[in-house]
Specification:
The chain is built from two helices and twelve strands. The chain is mostly beta strands and 239 residues long.
Amino acid sequence: MIKPLLTLALSCLFLTATAQEQPTDYKRSQFSISYGLANPAGDFGNDDWDEPNPPFAKNGSLLSLSYTKGLGKHFGLGATWARRSNDFNSSQYLKYRKDTNYSYTKASGDAWKSSFALGDVYLKAPLHSSGTVNLLLYAKASAGMAFHTSPSYNLETAFDRQTYDAMKDKTFAYGFGAGLEFTSGHFGLGFEANLLSASAEFERVTHSKDEYNQPKTYTRTIEQGLNTFNAAVKLSYIL
């Protein structure tokens, strides 16, 4: 997905590069889409077998849609919706469980998923301004709500199968980031790196069978950090 974004952005910038030079308007509105990598950090990046309930989250992806309104040369406000996905590392989880019980034969699961609704504050530092062509360095801080879903997964032995339901929680979330953006006319191309941070409390429900082959269910509470370092390419349209 990143390669098509880059191709489209470079085409747009080429078409507008010869536009007539005008005074830079720092109060324009901007719509952006970005896509890139989401790397688990802190407890979310933990797959240490000696720690309780490691999440076994793989490197994933982050898709963001944002709106920004400039308040002047150095400040801006905005809003962002983002969707993050990190696959569950089934093979690593199976190794973890085999360390305590060699009868386990197979593990499978889907992904950790989070959606974010955030408000953003921007601090901008123009590096080059010549009317319609601009180069901008910025930092931003974000805060809002996040909606999390843990992976559902299965663990099997030759005689039994344990099923772990997906868990959901909504929490406060915040983030910090910085980026570099080149704009020409109505189009912009940039790169942003940021940290998204949240912590959830899940009620994990497990389904299995007892020694008499009768279904049994038990529940326990799990606290999970859900931080990722993210790096993304950004394509923008400026009104």
